[in-house]
Specification:
Elements lengths: L9 E6 L5 E5 L4 H10 L7 H12 E4 L13 H5 L3 H15 L10 E5 L2
Helix pairs in contact: 1-2, 2-4
Length: about 120
């Protein structure tokens, strides 16, 4: 059987500390990858300048709540408002999903069809 070389519309759920979770695109398109490269300093030695643009391309849902307990919408602006501890937790899990041979630890997660 031939391998499908085109992206799917599935999401991958990553369980985080404290019962939180995020859902990321199971795959990103080459167009999205090119946009990420254009918007970031990827490959220039500054991983922090590359992290947030990549997270903005990948995260489609999360269970993060604000101080009042309300779930906060996933937007580029809200990703910028995440605390550093959260971004540092997300980074290896998200990058590891797309680059499995470089995973340092296996995040728990599952793939599902995007609605």
């Amino acid at each position: 059987m031939q391998q499908n070389r085109f992206i799917n519309n599935k999401v991958f759920r990553i369980d985080l500390d404290g019962g939180d979770w995020i859902e990321i695109k199971d795959e990103i398109s080459f167009a999205e990858y090119r946009e990420f490269l254009a918007e970031s300093d990827y490959g220039k030695g500054d991983i922090l300048k590359s992290t947030v643009p990549f997270l903005k391309k990948c995260i489609v849902a999360w269970g993060f709540a604000d101080a009042e307990g309300e779930i906060v919408e996933v937007t580029p602006e809200n990703i910028d408002k995440l605390n550093a501890r959260t971004v540092l937790e997300l980074t290896p899990a998200v990058f590891g999903h797309y680059n499995p041979e470089k995973k340092s630890s296996e995040p728990s997660g599952q793939i599902s069809e995007k609605e």
